[in-house]
Protein backbone atom coordinates (compact mmCIF):
# COMPACT_ATOMS: atom_id res chain seq x y z
CA UNK A 1 0.00 0.00 0.00
CA UNK A 2 1.30 3.44 -0.83
CA UNK A 3 1.09 6.58 1.20
CA UNK A 4 -1.43 8.07 -1.25
CA UNK A 5 -3.79 5.13 -0.77
CA UNK A 6 -3.77 5.65 2.99
CA UNK A 7 -4.48 9.36 2.69
CA UNK A 8 -7.16 8.72 0.11
CA UNK A 9 -8.85 6.14 2.31
CA UNK A 10 -9.09 8.52 5.27
CA UNK A 11 -10.75 11.28 3.30
CA UNK A 12 -14.50 11.63 3.78
CA UNK A 13 -14.91 13.19 0.34
CA UNK A 14 -15.56 10.59 -2.30
CA UNK A 15 -15.78 11.70 -5.96
CA UNK A 16 -19.58 11.78 -5.94
CA UNK A 17 -19.70 14.00 -2.88
CA UNK A 18 -17.14 16.30 -4.51
CA UNK A 19 -19.25 16.39 -7.69
CA UNK A 20 -22.34 17.30 -5.66
CA UNK A 21 -20.42 20.03 -3.82
CA UNK A 22 -19.20 21.58 -7.06
CA UNK A 23 -22.66 21.38 -8.60
CA UNK A 24 -24.34 22.90 -5.57
CA UNK A 25 -21.74 25.67 -5.35
CA UNK A 26 -22.19 26.58 -9.03
CA UNK A 27 -26.00 26.43 -9.03
CA UNK A 28 -26.62 30.05 -8.05
CA UNK A 29 -23.95 31.54 -10.38
CA UNK A 30 -25.31 29.46 -13.26
CA UNK A 31 -28.86 30.61 -12.59
CA UNK A 32 -27.79 34.24 -12.21
CA UNK A 33 -25.93 34.10 -15.53
CA UNK A 34 -29.03 32.66 -17.21
CA UNK A 35 -31.16 35.49 -15.78
CA UNK A 36 -28.61 38.11 -16.88
CA UNK A 37 -28.86 36.74 -20.39
CA UNK A 38 -32.66 36.72 -20.31
CA UNK A 39 -32.92 40.24 -18.87
CA UNK A 40 -30.51 41.58 -21.50
CA UNK A 41 -32.70 40.51 -24.43
CA UNK A 42 -34.80 43.17 -26.07
CA UNK A 43 -37.93 41.01 -26.11
CA UNK A 44 -37.89 40.31 -22.38
CA UNK A 45 -37.15 43.92 -21.48
CA UNK A 46 -40.09 45.03 -23.64
CA UNK A 47 -42.23 42.42 -21.91
CA UNK A 48 -41.20 43.71 -18.47
CA UNK A 49 -41.61 47.37 -19.39
CA UNK A 50 -44.73 47.42 -21.53
CA UNK A 51 -46.22 43.95 -21.26
CA UNK A 52 -45.78 43.45 -25.01
CA UNK A 53 -44.07 40.68 -26.96
CA UNK A 54 -44.04 38.35 -23.98
CA UNK A 55 -43.03 34.80 -24.80
CA UNK A 56 -45.97 32.44 -24.38
CA UNK A 57 -43.59 29.68 -23.26
CA UNK A 58 -42.57 31.73 -20.20
CA UNK A 59 -45.80 30.77 -18.41
CA UNK A 60 -44.72 27.13 -18.58
CA UNK A 61 -40.94 27.42 -18.38
CA UNK A 62 -40.63 29.71 -15.36
CA UNK A 63 -42.44 27.31 -12.98
CA UNK A 64 -40.29 24.51 -14.41
CA UNK A 65 -37.18 26.61 -13.68
CA UNK A 66 -38.42 27.22 -10.14
CA UNK A 67 -39.00 23.55 -9.35
CA UNK A 68 -35.85 22.30 -11.06
CA UNK A 69 -33.79 24.88 -9.12
CA UNK A 70 -35.14 23.70 -5.77
CA UNK A 71 -34.93 20.06 -6.83
CA UNK A 72 -31.28 20.61 -7.69
CA UNK A 73 -30.68 22.19 -4.29
CA UNK A 74 -32.38 19.27 -2.52
CA UNK A 75 -30.48 16.61 -4.49
CA UNK A 76 -27.14 18.38 -3.99
CA UNK A 77 -27.62 18.93 -0.28
CA UNK A 78 -28.85 15.37 0.13
CA UNK A 79 -25.75 14.01 -1.59
CA UNK A 80 -23.58 16.17 0.64
CA UNK A 81 -25.07 15.62 4.08
CA UNK A 82 -26.26 12.03 4.09
CA UNK A 83 -23.72 9.93 5.99
CA UNK A 84 -21.34 7.61 4.20
CA UNK A 85 -21.85 4.85 6.78
CA UNK A 86 -25.33 4.10 5.46
CA UNK A 87 -25.11 1.18 3.07
CA UNK A 88 -27.70 2.68 0.74
CA UNK A 89 -25.40 5.66 0.07
CA UNK A 90 -23.11 3.51 -2.09
CA UNK A 91 -25.67 3.71 -4.88
CA UNK A 92 -27.81 6.67 -3.77
CA UNK A 93 -25.06 9.32 -3.67
CA UNK A 94 -24.17 8.87 -7.39
CA UNK A 95 -27.87 9.05 -8.27
CA UNK A 96 -28.31 12.25 -6.26
CA UNK A 97 -25.16 13.85 -7.72
CA UNK A 98 -26.17 13.10 -11.31
CA UNK A 99 -29.75 14.24 -10.63
CA UNK A 100 -28.42 17.49 -9.15
CA UNK A 101 -26.36 18.22 -12.25
CA UNK A 102 -29.19 17.31 -14.63
CA UNK A 103 -31.62 19.52 -12.72
CA UNK A 104 -29.07 22.35 -12.81
CA UNK A 105 -28.86 22.06 -16.60
CA UNK A 106 -32.67 21.94 -16.78
CA UNK A 107 -32.89 25.10 -14.66
CA UNK A 108 -30.49 26.92 -16.96
CA UNK A 109 -32.35 25.73 -20.08
CA UNK A 110 -35.76 26.67 -18.67
CA UNK A 111 -34.64 30.18 -17.72
CA UNK A 112 -32.94 30.81 -21.06
CA UNK A 113 -35.88 29.26 -22.93
CA UNK A 114 -38.32 31.63 -21.22
CA UNK A 115 -36.82 34.63 -23.01
UniProtKB/TrEMBL annotation:
It comes from the Bacteria. Keywords: Membrane, Transmembrane, Transmembrane helix. The chain crosses the membrane at residues 20-40, 60-82, 94-113. The keyword Transmembrane applies. This is Tryptophan-rich sensory protein. It comes from Nonomuraea africana. The lineage of its organism: Bacteria, Bacillati, Actinomycetota, Actinomycetes, Streptosporangiales.
Amino acid sequence: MTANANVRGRSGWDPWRRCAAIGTATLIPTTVLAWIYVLSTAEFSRCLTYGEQCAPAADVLLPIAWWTFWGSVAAGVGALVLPKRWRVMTWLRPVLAVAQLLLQVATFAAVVGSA
